[in-house]
Model the fold of this input.
Amino acid sequence: MKFSVLGPAGTFADAAAQKYLALHPIKNIEIDYHNTFDQVYQAVTPDGLGLLPVENQLDGFVLATLQRLQAADITEIGEVTVPVNFGLAGKVNNLNEIKRIYVQFKTEGQCQKLLAQLPNAQIITTSSNMISVEKLRAGQAGDAAIMPQSQLAVESFPFTMANVADQTDNNTRFIIFKKQPAELKVPAQPVKDKTASFKSALFITPPTEEVGVLYKILSYFAKTHLNLVTIMSMPTRQKIGIYSFYIEISGTLEQRNTLFETLQRMADVYTIHPLGIYAL
Done:
């Protein structure tokens, strides 16, 4: 059984996968590393699992993941949050000598204070933090990279700086999923503790753009006292002005029936694309 994640080994995605497996042990599972989000998704087998970052504490939601989820037939089965901090290493003697800096596309948004100190450096975007490390290893004098803080202890470069993120208490949330369509019905497994909490994610797309459409969507949840913890608008790419709404809902497991009854009513008016429901 394969667990597909963004690699190579040593990424925050790798740390998230290891943490998830420590909390939810699975026999005979192998972590399967890939270079891009799309490769991770494509690599998930029918009996396997995938893991993608969905939200960072500093930089917000990961657009590349939401775009994939918008069209994907997947079922989310859990989430895991890991602390994120970064260090800088370079083939230089000081910051002023940096000519090129390799940085993962989401990491860039979390290290703006550092990058502001390097106005003349060329920023080269990579698809993962460990690829930034690999680029630096193969690079030349004047090169630098932002990398997971843990890598500073295992790499050997002339210049290093620790704690270069804009905040040291940064975290990233990852989702774990199976490649099978989620259903608009309550999972069959019995609930032992009905006071325990759940989270559910979905996309809701109105048929047309009209005044008050978001208010009408939100009113369904307000009337049933379901707690919306996230709402993001995403273009449908079919017509300007028509948006899907990415929504995350939380509640007690006892409220699961209420959630699915609400979504089934909404399906008469809107296109509902469920992404799964899981216990927290």
Notes: The chain is about 25% helix and 35% strand. Residues 260 and 280 are 18 Å apart (CA to CA). The mean pLDDT is 91.
